[in-house]
Amino acid sequence: MDYLLHILVVALVYTVFALSLNLELGYTGLYNFGHVAFFGIGAYASALLSLAGFPVAFSMTAGMIMAGAAGALLAVPALRLSGDYFGVATLAFAEMIRLFFLNERWLTKGPMGLPGIPRPLGIPSGVSGLPLYFLLSALVAAAVFLFTCRIARSPFGRALKVVREDEYVAQALGKNVFSLKVQIVAVGSLIAGLAGALYGHYITYISPSDFTLNETILVLLCVVLGGRGTQWGPVVGAFLIIFFQEFIRFLPIPVDFGRVVAPIQGMVYGAVLVFLMLKHPEGIIPEYRI
Amino acid sequence: MLDYYAQLVVNGIVAGAVYALFAVGLTLIYGVFRFINFAHGELIAWGAYLTLMFSGFLPFGLAVVPALFLTILLGIGQERYIYRSLRQRSRITLLIASIGLSYLLRNALRLIWGSDLVSFGFETRRGMSFAGLIVTRTQLLMVAAALLFLAFLYMLLNFTMLGKSLRAAADNTELAEIMGIDMKKVGLSVWILSALFAGVGGILIGIDTNLEPVMGLINLLKAFAAVLLGGAGNVWGALLGGLCIGIAENLGVAFFSPGYKDAVSFALIILLLLFRPTGLFGLIGGIR
Description:
Chain A has about 290 residues and is mainly alpha-helical.
């Protein structure tokens, strides 16, 4: 039961993370290949502030804002060129952020990571706090889900979809394409920061190795598998992927082969991404098009 | 003290010569297909690892040949089985497929050879000294090989019909096709060149330092920086860009912690996008 709750919490964290990527990738068509950077910024900022003695709710908010600000700061230069460069810039940014976490020992303790991150609202760390933390993350995920639904249905969301389909049309309709893109990247990064903070305070220990390209691929897979540009797609994708990942642990794999499990898992994720793009680019839940 | 900086510049030129090989391959593909191949880095790593495999039972000089051949096949395979059928669809599917493919190939490397550092096992030799600057044999080899391949590219682009069609296709694909240039042949030769250069560069890096599965990703980001510096689609810009990145990151070691050596090129990518998105040299109209 506790184990199931643990998987559910992780799946909910990834739901929030995937919903934030879907705003950029699904609705606006921005190829963000470094989304984990904002997840990491949220996690580290929130963890460091709460370890410094600030209330956890305050730290999480600050972490979100810092991630959102970082997103906006990156988006301004990176979106000046066509979409391909955004992919390059975000990929490079994520590596830079990881190197920052790894090298600034005075702040982040480098590869040692940050242990003993407190949980919010007095939820005890360890197994006893699991049901409450599940409740908290379910509430956060539901709030984020409703928020993204609201964005998708708003005039702002419709303008984003026009940008995705054809930038020139959006411009001709009097929309400021650049400003729309920067706004959505800022919002997406803000929510990714929230997901990161939620993750850090749950696991109570973070290190630079939690925020690598692997996590970017994982969340990309959640969005693409579930269905880009749909409301439920990222949710379905996140639950499927996280449950699949945990399911692997129960396979009767001989100890000698333990070493090869991670690479094979990575190969499967990569192959699924390629396969989906070739055969099923719309994912499990296809986007409704008029 | 001046010697110290001069030595860093020399090291930078050596590293930059290899980055130029990667960047030229990346920019050739971009020039013809207008697409950034995120799996280019895996060609670098596979070139190096395949050489490691063949050098197990062949002399090193011979092992390079089948390794490069297989790397080229890998490049052509990427195009034929994945990218070609996606080219008609939205760009986002193409880019997601290429990043998925790179992840697949990188994990395949980890599966076969493990995640640890491996090396070709050459003995380290003492460097030679020229006017106070120390250069190792490996470094000379790196520069020589890079020069050789880039000279080959120069000849190909400027003095053959194939090179002319490549340049025409990079300039305007539709127009080139209308003029009767065989785009299949152009596409194939671009992939062969790109994979060959990536493989050679990967082997050179392997001789100089180590092989590890993430070597592809790290060098890919440096190649991106070089391509952006030179202006995307511009072959000679990419070459100069590669040299600049090599020198910048080696000089960077003098001012920042060595842990940030790789970050120099990433920071350059972001700064360039901010201030000079058309590339530092602005040779957009030059030889592509």
